[in-house]
Amino acid sequence: MGSAFLPAIDNTVAGNWIENMRLGLYMDLYSELNTLMNNNFVNNSVQAKIELAENAIMGNYWSDFDSPVEGCFDMDSNGMCEAPYEFYGGEDASAKSHLLLRLQT
Ligand SMILES: [Ca+2]
After folding, report:
1. Domain count of the chain?
2. Is residue 5 in some structural domain?
3. How far is the CA of 102 from the centre of ligand 1 (A)?
4. How far is ligand 1, taken at its centre, from the CA of residue 94, in Å?
5. In this structure, is residue 6 part of a structural domain?
6. Distance (Å) from CA 72 to ligand 1 centroid
7. Which residues contact 94 (CB under 8 A, 6 or more apart)?
8. Could you tell me the sign of the dihedral formed by the alpha carbons of 33, 15, 40, 81, in that order?
9. What is the pLDDT of residue 105?
């Protein structure tokens, strides 16, 4: 568990659980063409910060964006928020909703 995201190009990062870090995800100016999907970002002080928008970030779970009060509405119940999750430098256009609620019930 951690935020070991080093400068990387053309990698796929998937299926990670990143929790209680000061910075969950960081990608510097030399990180591009990466794909981040199906990761879980849980209670990190700063969930994500990227310097370049040239990365594909989609389908991740963000603990501070999984309920209507946080701006995540899932009106069509497909498990994804209708609005994108926005963070410094980018966004996740298909953020997952209510993952923890579903896991706990
Ligand atoms: Ca939806």
Report:
1. 1
2. no
3. 15
4. 8
5. no
6. 9
7. 58, 59, 80, 81, 84
8. positive
9. 44
CA of 87 to the centre of ligand 1 (A): 19
- Is 93 contained in some domain? yes
CA of 37 to the centre of ligand 1 (A): 17
**Structural domain boundaries enclosing 70:** 12-104
Query: Does residue 69 belong to any structural domain of this protein?
Result: yes
Q: Side chain identity at 11, as an amino acid letter?
A: N
Query: pLDDT tens, position by position, for the chain (105 residues)?
Result: 455 565 688 889 899 999 999 999 999 998 999 999 999 999 999 999 999 889 999 999 999 999 999 999 999 989 999 999 999 999 999 999 987 555 554
Distance 9 CA to ligand 1 centre (A): 30
Quote the ligand 1 centre to 70 CA distance (angstroms): 14
Sign for the CA dihedral angle at 92, 94, 97, 100 comes to: negative
Taking the model in full, what pTM does it have? 0.87
